[in-house]
Amino acid sequence: MQETRLDTARIRAARRVINPVFLDTPLYRCEALEPDLGCAVSIKLETANPVRSFKARGTELVTSLLADEGSRAAVCASAGNLGQALAWSARGRGLDVTVVASRHATAAELDRIRALGARLELVDGDHELARERAAAIALQDGIRLVEDSLDIETCEGAATIGLELAQARSSFDAVLIALGGGALATGVGHVMKALAPGVEVICVQPVGAPAMTRSWRQGRVVTTEFTDTIADGVAGRRPIPAVLDDLLLVADDAVLVREASIVAGMRLLLDRAGLVVEPSAALGIAALLEDRDRFAGRHVVTIVCGSNVDKEAYRRWVGH
Amino acid sequence: MQETRLDTARIRAARRVINPVFLDTPLYRCEALEPDLGCAVSIKLETANPVRSFKARGTELVTSLLADEGSRAAVCASAGNLGQALAWSARGRGLDVTVVASRHATAAELDRIRALGARLELVDGDHELARERAAAIALQDGIRLVEDSLDIETCEGAATIGLELAQARSSFDAVLIALGGGALATGVGHVMKALAPGVEVICVQPVGAPAMTRSWRQGRVVTTEFTDTIADGVAGRRPIPAVLDDLLLVADDAVLVREASIVAGMRLLLDRAGLVVEPSAALGIAALLEDRDRFAGRHVVTIVCGSNVDKEAYRRWVGH
């Protein structure tokens, strides 16, 4: 296999750097979901930690390296989860963090970012504008720009989830991974290809934010003019070429799912599994709902990657 | 210290018998809860597993011993969680299980018990009547009666939570434990007294189901005529003398909380922590809400012991 930017030995070493509160997360068969989905389903749960998403696996690595280098500050753009995770990891290491987010980001997430001591700057626009503004701040202040999915630490941090899946007592036929910038998909995908090559690596993106999926299908970067999805955590428009190159090496498929399926997935996870999840975290269940025949009789694992959700929006979506 | 029925070495050994999917559950600081509670709060989360409660730690031990002895069947009374856990553990070991439950138990739980292959018998009455009926079946069929809290395996299984708390990197000032029959409280309490004696062991029960708390306060078994609480998992009326004796040795306090506080606790866990919990699992948060002065500035850990909840009732309670 041609090589990704990721390194399995470095990913194993990352486990010694990441705070254990983010590692060895629950992985369990959830039979109560199965009558609705027609296949065996296991859940890898990344929400039961201080930042309620998997992102801290990456920010623990980033901030550890920054602290070792004697850096004092960093900046990132974030739809919410990366910002909260970077703020959490930075606080414990005495680093100053600036998070640039869209004014339309989830209010509760922005409150958490502030509460963790980060400086928050809001932009009138979408995530791509926030990325531009974060880059400008980094240049102006001479500080580290943490770029989700481009920075190898964000991918290799996420990849530690793959180690935990590969070492599980159960074996899986497929892993369903939310696809946004690509850190989670390339991270977990890399480890699966290296350590559990029989597991099909399937990325799932909303039909309303299809840039990376289209890019993967065409084998070249395809951008979109806008996004239209409730899954703000995966709503990018401009895939990063180096990340696409990695994704082309590790993904077996990339599928697009409808908004109604994402909402149905959130509702199923609530009603059958007792799990509150953000839209991005329901993408895997949405993919199962949209193609029961494909998965019939197989054992799939889906990564429930975050639970940071606006409570009012959540009530509207799930109808509670 | 006078000795409880529990044995710390046996509890350590239990970790080798219990399926790892139930062990080493998430333990994390939840700062988003803290502005409402006025103290540092960590959560020990026992819901992210195949049966959505801590009870399988005990039923794994019981069924393992039964299988070793060549037994073929067992019966228990349950408000839902024990039955589901016993059915799960028994299925994997080829044991037949009968669960006796009240007709008023949560429908989704009864469905799960059936789906796991257990025989379900419903009684027109409360948990004490179910206990009597389960005992009659055991006698008639000559099979093992699994008695929650009386059977040492149910206490020592629950006690493995205590090992995980005692070995945590954080140290706690107090642990808040839901009090029903007493397996969880005596189990965790025993380990705390043995391995982390500086941690205050505080049991929490609904004011509408106060039998064990009153018994603890008076130092002798006190029964009640009825119970009136939404926390069906802890709604016993007749404390077991041997369990009370253990509780008297390990609990530093037992407090009663109002129904409104339980509901407020469930709502806080949902809104601030993204956790769906059953009423029993919110007892610790309810105790914090009712006595902020007592806990101000301290670091408490509360065991979120289950998430098996009727979805319609849950919506009514939390107002979603």
TrEMBL record, chains A, B:
<dbReference type="InterPro" id="IPR050147">
    <property type="entry name" value="Ser/Thr_Dehydratase"/>
</dbReference>
<dbReference type="InterPro" id="IPR001926">
    <property type="entry name" value="TrpB-like_PALP"/>
</dbReference>
<dbReference type="InterPro" id="IPR036052">
    <property type="entry name" value="TrpB-like_PALP_sf"/>
</dbReference>
<protein>
    <submittedName>
        <fullName>Pyridoxal-phosphate dependent enzyme</fullName>
    </submittedName>
</protein>
<keyword id="KW-0456">Lyase</keyword>
<keyword id="KW-0663">Pyridoxal phosphate</keyword>
<feature type="domain" description="Tryptophan synthase beta chain-like PALP">
    <location>
        <begin position="22"/>
        <end position="306"/>
    </location>
</feature>
<dbReference type="Pfam" id="PF00291">
    <property type="entry name" value="PALP"/>
</dbReference>
